[in-house]
Amino acid sequence: MFFHAVFWAAYSGSGSSSIYQKLPSSEKGYWAASIVSTVHAVLLSILCYSSAQSSGVWEKWDFFLTTPETYLCCAVFCGYLIADLVLALYYNSQWPGWQLNLVHHVVVIVSLMQMMTGYGHCFALAAGMTELTTPFVNNRWFMDKFGMKSSPLFVANGMIMLVSWFFVRVCYFTYVGYRLIGMREQLFTINWFGLFFFILNYLAAFCLQLIWFQKILMGALKVTGLLKSKEKIEKVTD
Length: 238
Hints:
Layout lengths: L1 H12 L4 H5 L2 H31 L1 H4 L7 H24 L6 H18 L5 H9 L4 H12 L6 H31 L1 H4 L4 H33 L1 H12 L1
């Protein structure tokens, strides 16, 4: 309810922007959803970090360690994904990357609901921290709509997005997988349904991080002109 309220506030409150007024209905929805996404990313990152510091989940890496604060993080994360899933289903193919987005949301929602029965909160908090990269992704979309693709600010945002994605969503998420392997004895004590979705959640999320990183990298290479230079060299070689 909170995230839907933020969506409608952003949807109706952005009417004063001339850029927003010129957008088709689907992009107005994406505009508002992107604002909600940034709000969620900032809120969840703060909650996850604060909860991890107070509970010590990232020092102990105990698969069954939970606190009221870690439950709150799982609930906020799950609540946002459910709210965004409703919008994604409504707009479906009108939004870019909708297929991967739907797969990601459904798998993570089911997994988080299972984790709220009392396990895997160390992983949920680590996954929540990857949202630190989200504001830069949303900034790129907004800058594009404001015609800022040739500005130094657009390039700087893109470079920050690329570097942060690599370290947070690729390197750090790989490290989290390593820690999960270390907790495999605890992991294999949960029911088969929860085990299936937990492993599927990590593998699907990790694969998506790599796919999205490749897209971000290709975009960065195009902006900097390195991709065009590479294509010219290949043509000459051929």
